[in-house]
Amino acid sequence: MQFVTDLHLHSKYSRAVSQDMVLPIMAKYARQKGLDILTASDWTHPLWFKEIQAQLEEKNDGIYVLKSEIRNPKSEMVRQAHHLNHPERSRRTNPKAQNTNDQKETLFILSTEISSIYTQNGKLRRIHNLVFAPNFEIAEKISKELVRRGCNLNADGRPIIGLSSKALLEFILSIDERTLLVPCHVWTPHFGMYGSASGFDSLDESFEELSKYVYGIETGLSSDPEMNWQIKELRNRTILSFSDAHSPAKMGREATIMELAEPTYESIRGAIMEKSQEKKGENRIVYSVEFYPEEGKYHFSGHRNCGISFGPDEIKEKGTVCPVCHKRLTDGVLNRLLQLADKTLSHVTETKTNQSGLKWYTDRSKHHPPYVKLVPLLEIIAESMHSTVASQKVKNMFQTITTQCGSELDVLLKTPIEEIAKAADSRIAEGVSKVRTGDIVIEPGFDGEYGKVKIWQEGKDPEKNTDNTAQMSLDI
User: Fold this and answer.
1) CA-CA distance, 30 to 27, in Å (whole number)?
2) In this structure, is the dihedral angle defined by the CA atoms of residues 64, 91, 88 and 243, taken in order, positive or negative?
3) If exposure means fewest CB atoms within 10 Å of the residue's CB, which of 5, 74, 198, 388 is most exposed?
4) What is residue 91's predicted lDDT score, i.e. its pLDDT?
C-alpha cells in the first residue's frame, strides 16, 4: 500500500515557525493536502515532547495517531457546526467530498532535526541531520543523553548541539540500533552536509567508518533527485524529499511516496534502508514530489543585498567575487553540485509523460525511483487570480478546489483538467496543466531569496517544452 510521507516538519517551538504548527492543525492540513504520514517533529524540546505524548497514542509499531478527544473535541465540533466556512464542515455537508482523503486518519512518526556545530579537520562545520526514533521511550533516552552531554534542548525545537554528525550517529545507534540518521537539505551552503560554506565533500569524510550506517539523504528545496543522481556515493543510497515546513500551508511541498507492507516504523525504516540492501524488500520508495529546485533559496550563487545572481556559466565567466561589494558570493547549490558531481553520471535522466500530461523524471540506469516537479496549488491559484497566496480569495478558491476535486496532491497529479475547470475556472485549470508539463519559467533563487515562478508569460507565446517524451503508465 502506498503512503505519502512528509517526515521533516517543525513545531511551534522552533524559531520562525507558525504557532499553527500543532498536531491537530497539522493533521487537518495533511488530509487536505493528501499526506498520510507526518513527523511529530521537534521531540527533543521538553515542552513539545510533553504535548505530543499527551495528544498521541500508538496505533501500530512506532506509528501514532491523535487521541479521539484531540481529533474531535466537543468545543471544536460546536465551532465547526456554527462556522459556515470551516473546511471540515464544508466537507461533511458536501457529498462529493466524502470520497476524498479527508476521511483518512493522519499517522505520525518520531523524527526531528538536530543542528550540529563543531570543528572537524580544522574547519568549522554546521550540519543539520534528521534523527528517527522507533518510539517515545527511545526518543526520551536520546534527549536525556543529549542533556547529559551538555546540550541545551530548551532554547529551540531544532536544538543546536556541539556533537559532530558522526558522534551523534554513534550515540543514537548505541541507544537503539533501530534509530536512523539522515543528513537533511544536504546542499544548502551553511547547514548542509555537502554545503559549500561548512560542509564536507563526501559522507565518508563526514561520518568516516560509520558512513555505512547513513542509508539516505534529504534533497532540500534547492536540489532535486536528478542533481543527486550525479553523486557517485549516492547511487546505493535512498534519496528522500520532505517539506521542512514552518507553517501548515507549506506542508507537502515536497514529499516521498513509500510502498509499505504495513504502516509501521520498521516498514518506513526498511524503505529508507532498501537501496543499501542486497535483497530487495517489500518496503520501498515509489517516487517523490519535488519543488522546482530553481524555486529554492540557494539554487544559484549570488549576493541578495547586492542583487547579484550568477549561474554556473556566469561563475565561469565572471568568477565568484561580487562585482558590487567585492566579497565572495554565497555559493549556490547548482555550482557546488558541479564541483562534486561524477561527470559520467551527468546524463542519466530521461523524461516521460503519462496520460494526465504529467512529466516524470526517471533514472535510465534504474538505480533510483522517478519523481515529479510541481508548484504548490496556492501559488498556481494566486498567479491565475493576479493575487497573493495570503489573500482570502486565493485561500477560498483553494478550499473550493480541494473540497470538490480531492486533495491538493490529487489535483496537481491526476485530477482531470476539465474537472478542475468546473470546480474553479479555465485559467486555474490551465495553470495546473502547464505545471504538469513543465511549461513554466522560474527565476532561480539565490543567497536566501526564493526563486520566482512564472506560469504565464503575458504578452508572449510561451516557450514549449522540447524534452523528448514517451508515454508511460504509473500507478498513482
Assistant:
1) 5
2) positive
3) 74
4) 46
pLDDT digits (tens, 9 = 90+) for 279-338: 567 899 999 999 999 999 999 999 999 999 999 999 999 999 999 999 999 999 999 999
What is the DSSP secondary-structure string of 447-474?
A: TTBPPEEES--TTSPPPPP-----EE--
The span from the CA of 299 to the CA of 278, in Å, is 34
pTM of the complete model: 0.90
Q: Read out DSSP for 397-431?
A: HHHHHHHHH--HHHHHHTS-HHHHHHHS-HHHHHH
Kindly give the residue spans of alpha helices, DSSP state H, lying in 34-182.
Answer: 46-55, 68-71, 74-82, 87-93, 136-148, 165-175
Quick one: residue 319, left, alpha or beta (phi over 0 = left, psi -120 to 50 = alpha)?
A: left
Cell matching residue 188: 544548502
Distance CA 4, CA 13 (A): 25
3-class state of residue 281 by DSSP? coil
Distance CA 372, CA 377 (A): 15
Which helix or strand (DSSP H or E) is residue 311 part of? none
Q: Please report the pLDDT score of residue 280 as a whole number.
A: 66
| Residue (of 17, 3, 244) closest to 108 by Cα position | 3
Q: Is the pLDDT of residue 102 over 90?
A: no
Calpha distance 259→4 (Å, rounded): 9
Place of cell 465547526: 80
Kind of pairing, strands 160-161 and 107-120? parallel
Q: Any idea of the CA torsion for 275, 277, 283, 285, to the nearest 10 degrees?
A: 0
Collapsing DSSP to helix, strand or coil, 93 comes out as helix
Q: How far is CA 427 from CA 385, 405, 417, 446, in A?
A: 9, 16, 11, 30
417, 405 contact by CB (below 8 A): no
How many of the other CB atoms lie within 10 Å of CB of 348? Answer: 18
Closest to 449 (Cα-Cα) out of 321, 331, 302 = 302
Cell numbers at 434, concatenated: 502547464
| Gyration radius of the chain over CA positions | 22
Strand partners, 66: 56
Residue 108 C-alpha cell reads as 505520525
